Amino acid sequence: MQKELQNGAIWLDTNGNVIHAHGGYILEWKDFYYWYGENRLGDNYISCYRSHDLINWEFRNNVLTTRSATKIHRVRTDLKLSNEDGSKVNIERPKVLYNEKTGKFVMWMHMENGKDYSAAACAIAICDTPDGNFTYLGSFRPYGYMSRDCTLFKDVDNTAYFVSAARDNADLHIYRLSEDYLNVDALVNRLWQGEYREAPAIMRKGGTYYMFSSYCTGWDPNQCKFAVSDSMEGRWSILHKIGDSTTYQTQPAFIFKKSGQYYYFADRWNGKDYHDSRYVVLPIHFKSSGRPYMDYEEYFRP
Ligand code: DGJ
């Protein structure tokens, strides 16, 4: 059993294979943490690992692949999981929530055609179990808006939000989801007009919501910034810096809480060799004013 993970090193699963869960998300469900993320090898799109301790990760399944089942949905979507010429599409930043009302695990993600970023669509998939074969319900543009980097956030009353970069990444939209999480219900915020925010990650501490995000520089890291609000649907602050000028060479994937401690879970992308991209996890601390800060740490020891 491993006791810690070294930030930026190659992380292996319990079978000794390299963990591919980039741009990912962790869902806490029953006794386990489930980590979903991008795996672009072979026919894979999204892989799922699970762990009791966030350190030792058991590979569970390639939950979304080119061969995944598809199903027509009440939302009119594009169901293609590969292109006409047989090439793969591109699926990025998968996030999964459990829906209490329907008992389903619902994945939202960013979908592109695999050649460029012109599709700018979100996509959804659904499953009865956290690590089963997800059924693809297709891709679409919410209310017709472009939708690229994204995240999900579930509030304490189970209201869920999908956040994604719109208008060629210039603006960041917050959509409230329908009760079953299978459609957008309302566009509740259009944030930081013209400020080009990517990689959104959200946490709630007490009555305060924090959103971390990066600037838009491809695979290259940049200065992470955070903003606060007292409601997902209310007014958000302007952006404030957190971390150093490259955020320790990372970009946010999601924010995670364990035993009262919040963690910044990030990708350290390798733009020249995507599959050699690594992970960095840093504890988030708070000043008495409520302002979050983080410093680099060599090891992740939750
Ligand atoms: C930055 C995004 O955050 C990533 O998810 C990915 O889309 C890259 N850009 C592609 O350049």
Rough outline: globular
Sheet with most strands: 4 strands, antiparallel
* CATH topology call: Tachylectin-2, Chain A
Order of strands side by side in the largest beta sheet? Answer: 2-3-4-5
Q: Tell me the distance between the termini.
A: 14 Å
Q: What order do the SSEs take from the amino end to the carboxyl end, as H and E? A: EEEEEEEEEEEEEEEEEEEEEE
**Total number of β-strand segments?**
22
Strand content: over 45%
What is the CATH homologous superfamily assignment? Glycosyl hydrolase domain, family 43
Helix content, binned percent = under 10%
Question: How is this structure best summarized?
Answer:
With 302 residues, the protein is mainly beta. The protein contains no helices and 22 strands.
Task: Describe what this molecule looks like in 3D.
The chain has 302 residues and is mainly beta. The chain has one domain (5-300): 5 Propeller (Tachylectin-2, Chain A). Helix content is 0%, strand content 49%. The protein has a 4-stranded antiparallel beta sheet, with no helix packed on it. A hairpin with a 6-residue loop joins strand 12 and strand 13 (184-191). The chain is globular and about 50 Å long. The mean pLDDT is 98. It binds (2R,3S,4R,5S)-2-(hydroxymethyl)piperidine-3,4,5-triol.
